[in-house]
Amino acid sequence: MKRWYLQPDDTTIYYDPKRAPIAATLHFLTALMLYSYLIPISLYVSIEIVKVLQSIFVNPDLNMYYEEIDQSAHARTLNLNEELGQVGTIPLDKTRTLTCNSMEFIKCSIAGVTYGWGVTEVERAIAGRKGQELTEDDNVANSEAKPSIK
């Protein structure tokens, strides 16, 4: 009886009513060994099913509706709930009030191609050094005559 788990033919100890505590312990250990591979797989599958259901519930949620662009939330990933729970910092200003940091796209240059028609602060500073007044209309009118910005 050294290696009871390697002898499936010798099963008299499993059904001996006189040694019920030993039989119960051996049944428990056998079940633990047999199901040790099955439980993590089923747990993984059930967690993925829960993530799918939670992402389905995010879409019609009225609390996730953004009024400014008239659009509701669209869950495009299963890890959305995990990412929503990981808010590390909240931006505050000097008075410790919550701020809304919104940015506007003005202009950029990617591989020598200019995108955007706005006047940047750098262009205003260069025009100020030359003694010129640069406005939005001047930049839009001169944008087609200018070569690509490198």
What is the fold's blueprint, element by element?
Blueprint: H1 20-35, H2 38-58, H3 80-84, E1 108-110, E2 113-115, H4 121-130, H5 136-142
Antiparallel strand pairs: 1-2
Numbering strands along the chain, what is their spatial order in the largest sheet? 1-2
Report how far the terminal alpha carbons are from each other: 82 Å
Query: What coarse outline follows from CA principal-axis ratios?
Result: rod-shaped
- Helix content bin: 25-40%
How do the SSEs run, as a string of H and E?
A: HHHEEHH
Structural class: mainly alpha
Report the biggest beta sheet as strand number plus sense, adding barrel if it closes: 2 strands, antiparallel
Strand content: under 5%
Low-confidence stretches: none
Count the beta strands.
2
In DSSP terms (H or I, runs of 4 or more residues), the helix count works out at: 5
Q: Kindly state the mean pLDDT as a whole number?
A: 75
Organism: Stylosanthes scabra
Transmembrane segments: 20-45
Keywords: Membrane, Transmembrane, Transmembrane helix
Protein name: Phospholipid-transporting ATPase 12
